[in-house]
């Protein structure tokens, strides 16, 4: 009998199938890795197992009992614990006190622990490597230690099944290696583990089995080598095989940068709280170039792109045409000639297509606005047919077109695109691809693309930057990328 069995799990949020008819098993002592791009349903699936979400249909069996209707409290009491991606410690209590509170029984009128509470808490602290900081407060700890403390609190519940949501997010490569070793040592104590992470390399190296999800569906399951080599998995993560032999690469230009590039980034660090997302990143873009920033989800691409717009804080400097943008607001940066099409689209859902476009060009004079709209309709004929439709009624592909079109209403010198291919069908990708080619080759728009789909990025880019674990690990031409890196960036 497997420790955990999921049968036909489905979860809908409105009309979206976040999890669609997913089946899998977890054996005692097994480590399962859930992988997939953003929006694949990974965290939702963990939420279903923990009871955070209730399935619309399907069955969850734990140790032979059906638990899909159990409360979170009952699941914890019966041996399921979860470590969420974001740490939320009690900041006025020490590390040891945080662990003690997790050990204590949760009875309403009793906090008595039948044993040496102090010794038990210190034993767990030592198990996760926190014995030296057990009497410190969470605010004084580096981010890697906070992750260990959350793990210690989960282990204090004595679980048979441990669920880990993005355990490696925000960690340095050395911290990832250390935490992976720690997770392996936990498995030796006969605890099954299911973990979600964008860091495919970290998952690949120590799990027993991988389950790959895409837009709510399970697309592959098996040993790490089998899943990573699966054609559908590679299509989802890469877009197409690197050795397909039919890459129509753009004409390569000189990689030598001018004395004064259009955009010059020298980012020392980007942090969210105590988590360092990016470190020592240098990127330069010349006028008229098409440059891609590639890497797996969670590598830090979106954070870097948002730093250019001043949406997130950073240590370092961003220069536009030689001048620093450090003290400018996002609105001021946009007016310099930088447009942003975000991964999340951020459309005005209940406004029409035309109203969304007009807001994009709200600083244009009436005659210029009319001329720009005509230009947009030529680029995206489908939007002209949808002018009076509200944005939320459009298909995913049409919403992505509207996002790019709204950005282009600003007449930008630089267009920044964050994951424009995410969740789109191949036929829609072709349309987006043709549009980007027209913008760059025929109209001379400088483009910076943040993209996981390597095939899509290589099709358009003159230069490539590879972002891994928050740092640039390779840069060069698209042709050199295929020869020197290729699919090694996936695993």
The biggest sheet amounts to: 6 strands, mixed
In percent, how much strand structure appears in the residues?
A: 15-25%
Q: Any idea what the CATH architecture of the largest domain is?
A: 3-Layer(aba) Sandwich
| Secondary structural class | alpha/beta
Total domains, how many? 2
Cα(first) to Cα(last) distance is 32 Å
CATH homologous group name of the largest domain: P-loop containing nucleotide triphosphate hydrolases
Question: Can you tell me the overall shape?
Answer: globular
Low-confidence residue ranges: 242-249, 253-258
Record the SSE blueprint.
Elements: E1 4-13, E2 16-26, E3 31-35, H1 42-50, E4 57-62, E5 65-66, H2 72-77, E6 80-83, H3 95-103, H4 117-127, H5 143-155, E7 161-165, H6 173-187, E8 192-196, H7 200-206, E9 209-214, E10 217-222, H8 224-228, H9 231-237, E11 263-272, E12 275-285, E13 290-294, H10 301-308, E14 315-320, E15 323-324, H11 330-335, E16 338-341, H12 353-360, H13 366-379, H14 381-385, H15 396-408, E17 414-418, H16 426-442, E18 446-451, H17 454-460, E19 463-468, E20 471-477, H18 478-484
Parallel strand pairs: 3-8, 3-9, 6-7, 7-8, 13-18, 13-19, 16-17, 17-18
Antiparallel strand pairs: 1-2, 1-4, 4-5, 9-10, 11-12, 11-14, 14-15, 19-20
Helix pairs in contact: 3-4, 3-5, 12-15
């Amino acid at each position: 009998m497997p420790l955990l069995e999921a049968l036909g799990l489905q979860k809908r949020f409105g009309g979206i199938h976040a999890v669609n008819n997913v089946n899998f098993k977890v054996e005692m002592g097994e480590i399962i890795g859930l992988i997939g791009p953003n929006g694949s349903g990974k965290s939702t699936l963990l939420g279903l197992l923990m009871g955070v979400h209730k399935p619309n249909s399907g069955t969850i069996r734990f140790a032979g009992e059906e638990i899909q209707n159990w409360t979170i409290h009952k699941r914890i009491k019966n041996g399921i614990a979860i470590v969420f991606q974001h740490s939320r410690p009690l900041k006025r209590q020490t590390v040891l006190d945080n662990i003690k509170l997790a050990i204590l029984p949760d009875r309403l009128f009793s906090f008595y622990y039948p044993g040496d509470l102090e010794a038990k808490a210190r034993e767990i602290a030592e198990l996760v490597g926190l014995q030296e900081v057990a009497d410190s407060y969470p605010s004084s700890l580096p981010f890697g230690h906070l992750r260990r403390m959350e793990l210690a609190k989960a282990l204090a519940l004595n679980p048979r099944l441990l669920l880990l949501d993005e355990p490696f997010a925000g960690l340095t490569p050395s911290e990832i290696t250390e935490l992976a070793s720690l997770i392996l040592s936990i498995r030796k104590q006969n605890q099954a583990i299911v973990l979600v992470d964008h860091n495919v390399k970290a998952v690949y190296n120590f799990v027993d089995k991988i389950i790959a999800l895409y837009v709510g569906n399970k697309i592959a399951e098996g040993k790490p080598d089998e899943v990573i080599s699966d054609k559908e998995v590679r299509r989802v993560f890469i877009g197409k095989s690197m050795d397909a032999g039919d890459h129509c690469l753009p004409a390569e230009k000189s990689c030598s940068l001018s004395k004064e590039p259009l955009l010059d980034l020298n980012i020392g660090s980007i942090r969210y709280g105590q988590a360092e997302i990016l470190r020592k990143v240098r990127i330069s873009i010349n006028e008229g170039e098409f440059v891609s920033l590639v890497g797996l989800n969670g590598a830090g691409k979106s954070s870097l792109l948002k730093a250019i717009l001043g949406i997130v804080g950073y240590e370092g400097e961003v220069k536009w045409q030689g001048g620093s943008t450090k003290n400018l607001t996002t609105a001021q940066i946009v007016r310099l000639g930088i447009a942003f099409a975000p991964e999340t689209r951020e459309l005005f859902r209940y406004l029409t297509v035309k109203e969304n476009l007009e807001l994009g060009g709200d600083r244009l004079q009436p005659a210029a606005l009319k001329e720009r709209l005509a230009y947009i309709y030529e680029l995206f004929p489908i939007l002209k047919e949808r002018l009076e439709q509200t944005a939320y009624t459009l298909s995913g592909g049409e919403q992505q077109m509207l996002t790019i079109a709204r950005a282009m209403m600003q007449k930008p010198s630089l267009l920044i695109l964050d994951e424009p291919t995410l969740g789109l069908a191949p036929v829609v990708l072709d349309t987006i691809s043709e549009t980007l080619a027209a913008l760059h080759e025929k109209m001379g728009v400088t483009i910076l693309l943040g993209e996981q789909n390597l095939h899509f990025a290589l099709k358009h880019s003159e230069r490539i930057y590879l972002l891994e674990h928050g740092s640039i690990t390779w840069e060069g031409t698209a042709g050199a990328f295929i020869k020197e890196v290729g699919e090694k960036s996936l695993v």
